[in-house]
Amino acid sequence: MAHTPRVASAPAGTPTNISQGTKTRGGIGESTLRPDGTLKVTGEFAYSSDMWHEDMLWGHTLRSTVAHAEIRSIDIGEAVAMPGVYAVLTYDDLPAAMKNYGLEIKDTPVLAHGKVRHHGEPVALVAADHPETARRAAAKIRIDYVELPVITDEASATAPDAILVHEGRDDSHMGHVPHPNIVHRQPIIRGDADEAAKRADFVVRGEYTFGMQDQAFLGPESGLAVPSEDGGVELYVATQWLHSDLEQIAPVLGLPEEKVRMTLSGVGGAFGGREDISMQIHACLLALRTGKPVKIVYNRFESFFGHVHRHPAKLHYEHGATKDGKLTHMKCRIVLDGGAYASASPAVVGNASSLSVGPYAIEDVDIEAIALYTNNPPCGAMRGFGAVQACFAYEAQMDKLADKVGMDRVEFRQLNAMEQGTLLPTGQPCDSPAPVAELLRLVKARPMPPERQWLAADAEGSTVDVRALPGGLSNTTHGEGVVRGVGYAVGLKNVGFSEGFDDYSTARVRMEVINGEAVATVHTAMAEVGQGGVTVHAQIARTELGVSQVTIQPADTRVGSAGSSSASRQTYVTGGAVKNSCEAVREKVLELGRRKFGSYHPAWATAELLLEGGKVVTDGGEVLADLVDVLEDEAFDIELEWRHRPTEPFDLRTGQGNGHVQYSFAAHRAVVEVDTELGLVKVIELACAQDVGKALNPLSVLGQIQGGTTQGLGIAVMEEILVDPKTAKVRNPSFTDYLIPTILDTPTIPVDVLELADPHAPYGLRGIGEAPTLSSTPAVLAAIRNATGLELNRTPVRPEHLTGT
Amino acid sequence: MDFLRPASWEEALAAKAEHPTAVPIAGGTDVMVEINFDHRRPEYLLDLNRIGELTEWQVEQDHVRLGASVPYSAIMEHLRAELPGLALASHTVASPQIRNRGGVGGNLGTASPAGDAHPALLAAGAEVEAESVRGTRMIPIDDFYTGVKRNALAPDELIRAVRITKADGPQQYSKVGTRNAMVIAVCAFGLALHPETRTVRTGIGSAAPTPVRAKAAEDFLNAALDEGGFWESGRIITPSVAKQFAELASGACNPIDDVRGTAKYRRHAVGIMARRTLGWTWEQYRGAGRTLEGAA
To answer: What region holds the FAD-binding PCMH-type domain (chain B) (predicted)?
Structure first.
């Protein structure tokens, strides 16, 4: 190991220890408050964009103005000559043999080389003493583009004469894809769908289109790279997975990983959009070149080009059912647009295919999912990850089929719901509770919100509150044209990284006596992106170690990987790692206690011992010793990796395999009011029921469910990145025209939480962050269909779709 | 970029005369966005925030003289009775923070067809008080909008105030956006009944290169109301009249397809809003209408 060099002075806005837990309570199952909550709501929290270092420069990225072009030449002369400019870098300046990065497939150039493949691709970098100078210098760089035809969909990607988005692919998927413009293909065949279709009394088919959603996190990509004495670099950055970044950054800098020291900075939301590298490598390159700290902060416009989006998709589904409502078979083909670079596309394909059947028991299936390479914006991880698109389609199918059979839509779903023991299309049994029918029952049993809530009688007569109507403050209706609709949906999401991935987390836990009190310190590399891990880790340490005071150290790469803050996995996996390391520390403490005090009380040898309230107690509650007396000057400090049950890859031909770790289920009932003349929608209520296994922090659980529900509402009625099909250019890269729900668009979200323990998971918990994002969208769509009678096979729904204009 | 900070209106006029390319800035709602997006790099910014009188208003006999920088939140709070259409339009402007800073002068200066105030000004009737070192002139609102984001101001002129006819009858304002708050107009419609002159005036936003009145619709409706004696009788307007009014309002649009909506939808929606706002104002005129809970 190289020595860790001293940094002259830590930049302002650098994360510090979060001390918490002055109470003796605050273990798991309690709604302890976020330690960063007050700072965030009062505007005091330091986000990565707030960091500052004396003598720092500002980096700026020049991005392509066209989607697909050869680069004939790049002239940086004028930019370099500008006063205040310290460096201008292009592909030719990259220091190492490795010039590309990528989550799985290293297909993404750090800076464009001879070609750009999407609108907004980074081509050159500038460092200057002022952000405005950097921006102006970048504008003086002359790039000679020769535009190429754009590939924008499956037809253009697989046409006989299609240009290859990536020439000479040698990645692991190349061997099994039917065309080099297809990133990955996953079929899943189980039973005999054609044969089973013969038993069907009713068959429904549908073509569904899912628009491109953005994560729309509020804190734009930003970070600060500080060169260090040993030729390495300290990188302070908002990300979702420090160690994955590190593995991609170090090779292109030509540095060993220990010379790239990363610290997580304040993250303003992620939702999958920070799984990929954005400004990390660029800032390091500029810092190493100039020998000065370099800060890069994207503005909102650039942020839309700075991260991947949710895959837009075309989905073709066929379902059959017998007269008595039993599903006979399902066939589907899901085409995901991965855009110009692979990002998480292979894993999204794995999820879309393996979860395409939804939470239903269907024995005979014929499934295919592919992701395309195109010249559209790159797409990758976003909350729900492949399962969201499928859920939108299969839930529309369930309504259509229930109507054909003549059954109540909820009862039809309950009749076909999977349960514990059901085999999924991959052949994997569901070996923990799967209360799908019960979740549907819970949302259906809720009382309906009152009708015509916009009317209130007062002394002067009746009053209209436009805030309760479609159009809201825009005052478009006082009740005219407004029709209510109700819709139901339920979804199935996997938890954790699947398909044989070594999905481990690391936790370091220290226990010692400080100022006469036994305290714990938890150190992980978990990216806190809002999920509440900093709260939950302290709760776990209190529960396992019986201490009040727990310090959560800033996440950095001085401790082993905690995996990604995605796939609903952090509480499960890094929480599991913290629990595991706490247990190891507890064993050490008890060992020490037995050595010191074992002879004074027989229970030291015979009883099950716990640490509670700062003491060693028997499982009967008898106090054996104070932790302070056991520990004295001793400190235990243990770092361990922890793994959940291993998974297997899916067979590339049949899709069979125990690919998933755990499943997560949520159901929604949406109540909407639609102004049928203007095509405007007000979602009145989105009731949710979800099984969470065990709510480690009930308040955080509600926050996750309400947040996921709202993000699902967004893609139902407003959120969409619009890409010009002729030029593949993004048309609405701003919050003026990429709309996300405001509080007036956000309905009441009553939640029923079930806690059916998963025996395989720590505390029985279930990953929860994504499931509510799945069923929210199709529930809203179903409710709008119910109100309008329209088929609506695409999301988001726009006013022109509802008015035929 | 030079930042000019005149302490008085006279200094501001002198600065504008000396630097005709100077871009006036008050709330910054439009100007700051354009600068942030690098769409505009003015040589000079002319900051009007030190000129207190621009945030004042006077209620006169038949009009309100509204200072160019009176924030939308003040219009909502203090001028609901005199300028009901503009107060409703103000509710639809952006967020509370922006409504505390932005004013009608900025909407007029930018002259975007999507500016929220324009349909209300057109429907109420208004004159823009433009001033330069050469003197003051009153520009009728109907002549103010000259093209996409262009207006009738001379390079050395600043907007001091807008004189808006006080309401002599019910006014309404509707705006379509694809979100229930804080949204740019896909299209908008303002309508004012003027019982004193027995006329109806309208304004359309975001559905033509400039804000426009639906003149043919107004003429048709004025004639129909007159011939049918509706003003005197206060009878419910015949549905066929309302329908034709809506169709003519729709026909007054000359919209485009863009990222916010289709031309076809805009025509359709303007027709719906015309019919509804006519219904609401007429109900109120008849004394039977529901009051509108103004929410801020």
So the answer is: 1-169
Rounded-to-5 percentages of helix, strand, coil across chain B:
40, 25, 40
Chain A partners within 8 Å of B283 (Cβ): none
Judged on CB neighbours under 10 Å (0-12, 13-18, 19+), A39 is middle
**Is B184's Cβ below 8 Å from some Cβ in A?**
yes
Tell me how far apart the alpha carbons of residues A538 and A546 are, in angstroms, rounded to a whole number.
11
Residues A132 and A228 in one domain: yes
DSSP letter string over A461-504? EEEEEGGGSTTGGG---SSTTEEEEEEEEEEEEEES--TT----
Instruction: Collect all residues of chain B within an 8 Å Cβ-Cβ radius of residue A137.
Output: none
Structurally, how many domains does chain A consist of? 4
A162 shares its domain with A254: no
pLDDT at A1: 38
In a shared domain, residues A668 and A754: yes
> What proportion of chain A, given as a percentage, has pLDDT over 70?
97
Query: Chain A residue with minimal CA distance to B185?
Result: A474
User: Where are any strands of DSSP class E within A349-444?
Assistant: 364-372, 379-380
Strands A636-642 and A662-675: unpaired
Chain A CB contacts of B290 below 8 Å? 461-464, 478
Name the CA dihedral angle for A138, A143, A149, A154, rounded to a multiple of 10 degrees. -40
Q: Judge if A227 and A363 occupy the same domain.
A: no
H helices present in A154-216, as ranges: 154-158, 193-197
Contact across the interface for A745 and B179, Cβ inside 8 Å: yes
Could you say which of A301, A475, A799 has the minimum Cβ distance to residue B173? A475
Report d(CA B66, CA B59) in Å as an integer.
Answer: 8
Cβ-based contacts under 8 A for chains A and B: 123
DSSP H helices, A742-770, are: none
Q: Which residues of B touch A299 (CB under 8 A)?
A: 36
What CATH architecture is B171-285? 2-Layer Sandwich (3.30)
| Residue A474 predicted with pLDDT over 60 | yes
Identify the closest residue of chain B to A466 by CA–CA distance.
Answer: B293
Considering only CB atoms, A463 lies closest to which of B261, B273, B293, namely: B293
CB-CB under 8 Å, B179 with A718: yes
**A30 assigned to some structural domain:** no
Of B36, B182, B292, the CB nearest to A466: B292
At A30-83, the pLDDT tens digits run 999 999 999 999 999 999 999 999 999 999 999 999 999 999 999 999 999 999
Q: How far is A299 from chain B (nearest CA, A)?
A: 9
Could you tell me if A510 and A615 lie in one domain?
yes
Longest dimension (CA), chain A: 86
| Domain range list for chain B | 1-46, 171-285
Domain carrying residue A348: 154-214+309-391
Q: Give yes or no for B173 touching A (CB within 8 A).
A: yes
Residue of A465, A799, A800 with shortest CB distance to B295: A465
